[in-house]
Here is the input.
Amino acid sequence: MSVAKVARFYKEYGLARTVTKTAREAWRAISNLSKLKIRTCMVCERRAVFFRTYDTQEAECCVRCGANLRYEMLAQWIRSEYGDRLKSMNVMELDPSSPLQSVLRTSALYIRTYYRPGVEGGSVRAIDGAQAEDITHLTLGDASLDLIVSSDVLEHVSDLHRAFEESSRVLRPGGMHLFTVPVCPLTERRAILVEGGIQHLLPAEYHLDPLDPKGVLAFWNIGLDLPEVMADAGLDISIAMGPQGESGRIVWKAARI
Here is the structure.
């Protein structure tokens, strides 16, 4: 194989970046061995090691399923609230590879979704069966779902109000959108979409994205005033669980009115 082909291979598949990232995270894990824990994971419900790839509880994950605190909180609430009823429910999760699959795949219908600009909504990805969806323009029918689950997704949606309106449209009476977002003091826009690009209202903030090494832009800070800010979106928004953990993690529920 020529040097040019090798270079192109590495560029296309990101092997150099992957090796570098793996080595970096391994070193971080070693440096945080004092915080290693062995306990039962609230998602996969198995005895597992939890270690931190860097010094924050957000990076403390189950080595079996990859769940961290926010996913454990979501799993606990779903099991407590729905129990065996989950088997008769239609569920959509805004994550194609979430640790919650072991919990949600028992539902009657479980749609795992991903978002990428330019991909036709409703199309199914051959590699993993995930469905392309935009939470602001869903392809699903009215009142077709009982539960929507998202974990640290909504802060990256440019039109948050529209996202909640769409959630309300596709949820059945009594259905809800259960979600987590990073905890902030107040709800405020960080950026808006304008003709030709993005206008930043606050300094640009990017969060980790397993599908994009550049990270994903946060369009919103979402605070405890969210129910008042989104009062006209057709959902009754309230805290379902929390705060818990070092950063005061909260699980929100947005129930269809």
Observations:
- Residues 9-14 have pLDDT under 50 and may be disordered.
- The chain has two domains: 3-62, 69-256.
- The chain has six helices and 16 strands.
